[in-house]
Design brief:
Elements (H helix, E strand, L loop, with lengths): L5 E7 L6 H6 L7 E7 L5 H8 L5 E6 L4 H15 L4 E4 L11 H9 L5 E5 L4 H6 L2 H18 L12 E4 H4 L13 H11 L4 E5 L13 H26 L4 H30 L5 H27 L8
Parallel strand pairs: 1-2, 1-4, 2-3, 5-7
Antiparallel strand pairs: 4-6, 5-6
Helix pairs in contact: 6-9, 8-9, 10-11
Length: 315
């Protein structure tokens, strides 16, 4: 098996208390470390330049803050320019254990996956250590991400501990990927359009004195809207533009019949309440049959969508 080169991208924004420790913990298997100072008000990049003696480290600087996605994309481009084979994204706040990098990249190195990501939900012990609001929020986001991306086999979509093979990275329209906190979820959507194989790797996050820059209120509004848009883009591209199958017919027919049965039944029920007359058997059947068939067709589409999770590596 060919020995593939590894690089780590560390977005640096308000992480001066942790970033040096994170770099020190990165093992010798990593060839290059890109620290991307995303216009950090604490001067994280300058701190690394002055204090870190690791020859693998390159500090890249943004004049204007671009968000975590923008920082990672800058690191991706730098890794592609140096022809790095596998690029790992590691947060600089110390929540991710650098010793897990080998486990994270193993499925890619063995040719089993194109993209891997951490999964904090695999271990019950890890769940107990995670704040309750994060467990609930990530559960909801996981469901939305499954629907939007079509990766029904993964969980914890906002997990930022990721690795990607360069051959897949080259196929992604990085200029179109979200630059802010929706980055990981949007990247999954782009990966699904490329039919990349994605694997979850179990991990346990560490929660200490670090402060998250994610605003929960904004996320509750922004993420569902973007997932809704991405789902319809994926639906159009995968089921109507690039390919067609029975599932392409099941969803629109199922929705049309289901809504017809539901609306017709509601109107008939209202009329019965007003007139005091029971609905006829024919009226009930005209409502129930389309509704039942509609639900069955939608379930058939979901079954096909789940079975269609990419499983052929693109390396």
């Amino acid at each position: 098996m060919k020995q593939l080169s590894l690089a780590v991208v560390i977005p640096a924004y308000k992480v001066k208390d942790h970033v040096l420790d994170v770099i020190d913990a990165i093992g010798a298997e990593v060839k290059r470390i890109y620290v991307v100072d995303d216009a950090c008000p604490e001067g994280s990049g300058a701190l690394v330049l002055s204090k870190c003696k690791d020859q693998r480290v390159k500090v890249l600087t943004h004049e204007l803050n671009q968000g975590v996605g923008g920082a990672v994309i800058t690191g991706y481009f730098a890794a592609l320019n140096e022809d790095i084979d596998v690029v790992v994204k590691l947060d600089g706040d110390g929540q991710m254990d650098p010793s897990l990098i080998s486990a994270l990249v193993e499925p890619i190195l063995r040719g089993k996956a194109d993209y891997t990501k951490g999964n904090r939900f695999d271990s019950l012990t890890g769940l107990r250590e995670m704040p309750g609001i994060r467990v609930f929020g990530n559960g909801v986001l996981s469901l939305m991400a499954k629907v939007a991306s079509g990766y029904w086999n993964i969980t914890d979509p906002t997990n930022g501990f990721t690795a990607i093979h360069k051959n897949v990275l080259k196929t992604l329209p990085l200029e179109m990927v979200s630059r802010r906190f929706f980055f990981e979820s949007d990247l999954l959507f782009r990966l699904s359009l490329s039919r990349a194989v994605v694997w979850d790797v179990p991990m346990v996050a560490k929660y200490g004195s670090e402060t998250s820059n994610l605003k929960i209120g904004k996320t509750l509004i922004e993420f569902p809207i973007k997932h809704f848009v991405n789902f319809h883009k994926r639906l159009f591209y995968n089921y109507y533009l690039r390919d067609m199958s029975v599932a392409s017919l099941e969803l629109p027919l199922g929705l049309a019949m289901g809504w017809f049965g539901l609306i017709f039944g509601a109107i008939s029920w209202r009329d019965s309440l007003i007139t005091g007359e029971a609905a006829t058997a024919g009226t009930v059947m005209l409502s129930a049959v389309p509704l039942i068939l509609g639900v069955q067709l939608v379930l058939g589409f979901l079954s096909a969508d789940i079975a269609g999770v990419p499983n052929r590596v693109r390396q």
